[in-house]
Amino acid sequence: MSSPRRFAVVTGASTGIGLELARCCAKAGFDLLIAADEERIHRAAAELATTGVDVEPVQVDLSTMDGVDALYAATKGRPVDALLANAGRGLGHAFLDQDFAKARCVIDTNITGTTYLIHRIGNDMRRRQSGRILITGSIAGFVPGSFQAVYSASKAFLNSFSFAIREELKHSGVSVTCLMPGATATDFFKRAEMLDTSVGTIGKDDPARVAKLGFDAMMNGEGDVVSGWKNRIQSTVAQVVPAGLLASQHRKWAEPGTAK
Fold this sequence. Notes:
about 15% strand; 7 strands; alpha/beta; single chain; Rossmann fold
């Protein structure tokens, strides 16, 4: 009798990096529980099921505790071998000009929902002394992101959080990896209302390549991976340049009306 396939939970999996991460999992033979807050998650599930693995979609709002609880319940007690916590939201424009409900949703999705989900599934992994966690951070977390202030701060939280819990879990059998992409060709900038900015219109990285780098790093138990050589340079420079200068530079990329 063959052993059951490994089981992965992937959030934000309807499009973009999340969908590509789910494709990586399916190709590697993982059964999947995939989640997003939109109808497209069902189309993604239908496509992924053609690879021969079992796929269950859950349309749920992961900015809420109830939404995270619903996703956790959908595992039906099956041990999760890999949690790919990718769900996230972006938001452009100056902070005081933003609708605060939208700004709060960024915080609730990127920080509260993500950390609560990791707390729930991570505890199960630690009890079993086995599991892999991939957190989608961002190189945006290295920079005070003027005109993306809440988003960049949320990614700074995730970057830091991932390194901290990796150290805490070092001898537990549970690995934690942080994927830190730069600008990627997804729906992110449209959803963040940033199509009139320089960063919204420049060339972007391939989400499939970004996801493959993150997936491979997770499977190898690596602590972090920055996608693309330009992004690696930016992340290195950001650690030595004064924060005020970084914020001023970011304004040139993210302020509305800077699109070329």
